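re: that chain from earlier
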Amino acid sequence: MPEQCDPRPYDALLLLSFGGPEGPDDVVPFLENVTRGRGIPRERLKEVGQHYFLFGGVSPINAQNRELLDALRKDFAEHGLDLPVYWGNRNWAPYLTDTLRTMVHDGHRRIAVLATSAYASYSGCRQYRENLADALAALRAEALPVPQVDKLRHYFNHPGFIRPMIDGVLASLAALPEAVRDGAHLAFTTHSIPTAAADTSGTPADHTRDGEGGAYVAQHLDVARVIADAVRAETGVDHPWRLVYQSRSGAPHVPWLEPDICDHLEERHAAGVPAVVMAPIGFVSDHMEVKYDLDTEATAKAAELGLPVARSATVGADPRFAAAVRDLLLERATAERGRTPERCALGSLGTGHDLCPVGCCPARAPRPAAAGADWRGPAAAARA
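^ sequence. v structure.
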């Protein structure tokens, strides 16, 4: 097998995602899964679920993951990469444990995992590793073989992730009225998280204090700079930009990353900015937090202000992103075989780590997390 398409030691790839409801009856049970252990009353979950009910109770995320699965399988086949691709979710069917059980029954023992979260944070990385540890413990409790799972590195700055977003911003600028196009500002958006979680994101060396944001903010800022620089190079126009946040869900007294996108639109309008492009760089696909928080809520705020806005596309199932996943997989496989792989990254932060070190994106409370330097295996996890 040619070195450039040799997936060994991996015998399967797992696409690991968040999950979402696929009908009105799914909404509250799905939210119960998401918020399990927090003691949130069912009536409150019905209120929160109104965003989903506006779209028939269906989150776009599962359909988008099916499209990505198809894109990955197509790309692998076209490049001679004979590796099956499976899909499992954290909070809805197909559930992660069920998918891993199927993979084990299909004979797979060394599994590479791609999470649909590109950046470092507890919820975007460590929590997925905790989910993997829980699923492996469940397999062990069923007396099934327990596979080794390796989570692929963060890909926020991989060219196959960034280039589709650059093209999305260029397309959104072109869609604005010509009279306001050159004066448009760029609002790069991502999910707000508590400042305490942001400060402890990434490796211990990345951790910060006083709301500076750790690796989570630094990675988003680096991507935003790369995109803004590329837009300037391709249009000849220097569009001012800012990293802003959306989808806050925490208690009002807990500090979260700011400014919120709607507050930012109000501020830009008051400053006389003629138009804004909203670029959701923190999201892999156009799921509910993009469809509602940007396409519905933020767009309504812009209309109220009389501020022209356009929203650029996420990468979704773009063939370049599928190729990036193949690249990440083969890069890790090469390293696991003891060779030095070629690694692709744009911006100033480099390619990051293959194996999450101790203290990376720490949990709120200690829990076993697979695919990291502190993972002791399912047997030890069961005793912990």
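DSSP finds 15 helices and eight strands in the chain.
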